[in-house]
Amino acid sequence: MFSQEIHIPDTINLIEEVFIYAPKNLEETGQKINRLDSLIIENKFLDDISSLLSENTSVFIKSYGKSSLSTASFKGTNASHTKLTWNNVELNSPLMGIVDMSLIPVAISENIKIYYGSASLSKNSNALGGLIELNSSTTWSKGVKAKIVSQVASYSSYDNLGEIRLGNAKIQSVTKLYHSISKNNFPFFNNDITNQQIEYRQNADYLKYGFVQEVYFRFNHKNIISAKFWKQLSDRGVPGLTSNEAGPNNNKNRQNSGMNVYATNYTHYGERLKFELNHGANFQNLNYKSTNYINGVGYLNVVNSFSKSNSIYNSASANYKFNEKAELNAQINYNFHFVNSEDSIVNQYLTAKRQEGGLNVSAYYEIFKNFRLALLLRQDFCDKNLNPFVPVLSAEYFFKNNLSLRASVGRNYNLPSLNDLYLKPSGNPDLKAEIGNNSNLGVSYFLNKKNFSLKTDFELNYNKINNWILWRPTAMGFWRPDNIDAVIASGCETNLIFEYKLRKVKFKNIVNYAFTKSVRADENANPNDQSLGKQLPYIPRHSANLFSQVSWCNFFFNYQWTYFSTRYTSSVAEPGVLVSIYPYFMNDIGIGKNFIFKKVDLVLNFKIYNLFNEKYRSVLWQPMPGRNYSLQLGVKLK
Amino acid sequence: MKIRRIIYRISFLCLFVFGIFITSCMKDDFRPITEFNTNSRGVFIVCEGNFMYGNASLSYYSPLEKKVENTVFIRANGIPLGDVAQSLTIYDKTAWIIVNNSGKVYAIDIDNFKIKGKITDLVSPRYMRFINPQKAYITDLYAKNIYVVNPQDYSLTKTINIDDGSGKYYNHSSEQIVVFENKLFINTWSYDNKILVIDTNLDEVIDSIEVFKQPRKIVADKEKNLWVLSDGGSDYSDYKGDAGITKINMQTHKIEQSFVLPSKDNITDMQINKTGDTIFYVNGNIFRLPINATSLPQKEWINVGHKTIYGIGQDPYNYDFYISDAVDYMQSGVIYRYNSNLHCVDSFAVGIIPNSFVFK
Predict the structure, then answer these.
(1) Which ipTM score applies to this complex?
(2) Count of domains in chain B?
(3) pLDDT tens-place string over residues A415-439
(4) What's the number of CA atoms in the CB half-sphere (13 Å) around residue B21?
(5) CA atoms within 13 A on the CB side of B317
(6) Chain-centre distance of CA A476, in angstroms?
(7) Does residue B227 lie within any of the structural domains?
(8) Which pTM value belongs to this model?
(9) Which domain holds residue B4?
(10) Do B328 and A546 touch (CB under 8 A)?
(11) Is the minimum CB–CB distance between B311 and chain A shorter than 8 Å?
């Protein structure tokens, strides 16, 4: 009765285009869970997760530029409310609570699922906004398959990826190696200083490389174990603002980081019982330096901070199917985090540890014909304290003609990160957990015809988050977190996927739109505080994107369009050059051809980014590149 | 047929939407220029903005007209002021704005706010003080040097090394400057507890005086004393201690008096009146301290309620008192103007984090 997610059929192209939309699983009752389209993943194979999400989902990405810090937020929540996992191991730093999406390559996973809001609770707590799940997969075919993808792009950018899959029906090995390097020294017109001129972006270079090794072993059709290891190193400059005139030897900021992640899994697929054990760990380190040239001394660091975080994740879960109409899930988990950080310049040290775990039980039942109910109950603990109790009730009704209506109400929470609590000098040990009460109402529709398919979804959401953790400047010169009474994040999201075929021509279009109102709902004692009811900084009210592909006889043409409305940077969402960023429209195109041979497939893909060569910014005073190009060659050995 | 109709409609919709997209374009900052002419007296209000947000701005207030002009720098010049406007000093007819995290100092005309010149390639400048038209000093948070500049040609003439090399912390930063005879008194705020004394003839450090941790503001009184307000460092830091006020004899370099502040609540600013006999300081509320007092005042001079006072200043012409409320440090600050009877005669919004008042 259980499908084995990693037991997918052997195909020539691992990521095969899907033309049929199936009804939802019972365990997705009342929730919004998106599987990212394989075509999109293929198109973004050499990119990082931030650009994939920004251009193809309603998840908002705040990015300082290519391969610069990028964080993700769902439905008006903030970056620490978005959790990212790789094969059930959380990639968010327990120290900072966030994950830098620009450091996560798309290529490390084959399946990307997005759990919106309370849908994440079946997997993880603390994801007030949502969860992005990256999972690997393999086939059980005999032989060797290899893939090499190389890309040359503007500004001395080179990306290479190699992948080898080998094995048989019993054992499989997947090895991936990747390397990305760029000077990223794009020209831009700097009109933020007196001597306005064309400049080349300084200190924006990056280097990222790593490998993934996965081993899968199948005892029989019911029992599979796997072990996966991912190592990555990165080094990048952190460029300054366009108004900076400290000279080329000052304010030189660099960040290098390392990541070692392993994930092991045992899954038993029984007739009615699916049982899963997961154990994994995430070891991250980061060094941030800010250097100046000091007269008479030479180069001297003014910031030299090191941080390390070691996290171990363990979980056991069981799913029992009573019949096609009833299912019960249970999961226990125990995680341990140990972190330390230091800044050797100001001699501030932090060592902290945290144990967390919990029990999660959920039941799914088709109570009447076409009407499903789901109840999830979750109780977690952190160290010696019980976290807020989390209940979620969801329902979904399936009308005739593939139309369904769903609703859910529930609670979720997010613990302060260890930096929020203990960072010196700005941590606040009195912080309380953020508690979100959310409700969603959605409608879905899909249609499958011979040469045409369509899937669409519309959802209204409302999320009141109490004790929202907000970092604010202080009189002491540093930023410090505090709980504010409440933030209300509400809005709607819709997406549409449609594909059709006219003789040999195939069209595929994916459209997303989100309206997000995320406002402070706390009364402030200061009579001059105007922030009540104002949109939170850097969260756009409107965001939309479109991906279109037309293909004909192995030729393909891709069009990508991305839009964000005005983003405000102050707490009162006021307009003005100094405190807001104008709406963002971005157009990218790509054209390519697949060459199919007996033993090898070739793909040639030429892309133009920022098609209309627009001068724009994504973050205030951070320039972005004009029209730029890439040429990609992919070789697959069959 | 029905499906075909759907396809045609969707195709038409796609073409229509594509048409919109390719005509869409982004409008990079449009900055119209405003011509100012403010030749009567007025007050510059330096709004430092948020670190790495580049939203520093300059406001100008005319007390006679009760009129404020915000963001006058970008409006007069078409370029942003930069990241963190730390301070402003007026010398002759020029206002010198120190833009800390942009590594530069802009010189602007005090009437029309047009840029006259700039000093660049500084690490993290904080304050500027003139000795004569050809010589001024600029302090710096990280440079471990004090810059000596020639303001007439905007050039750096030399640096004074203040690195004592002994500290556990990054010693020394340098902040405000008080000139007394041929000496400079400079406080070292960040992770430090010293007042440095520099001989202006030798341009060398000749003495240092230990005070409460993190000396934040300094002023000189009429009796040749230096007053130092220390915030004591953050209680969440490993570098912390009492907050306090220290009175130093500028001739002997000896500490005359020390007062421990009863709380560390929002210690942000200290100023002295025009006659040099009364200190004003912020410790949550605003307090007034006569220079011959033997103890700190028990009661505040101005109770500010829940406001976040970040800067204070007294108009030398009419003794009106100005206070700035930084609110949550992420929105427009609000200025209150009190007359000598402590009646609020005006209030108005300015830029983000108004930190100081400089009277023209």
Answers:
(1) 0.91
(2) 1
(3) 999 999 998 888 999 999 999 999 9
(4) 24
(5) 10
(6) 34
(7) no
(8) 0.91
(9) 1-30
(10) no
(11) no
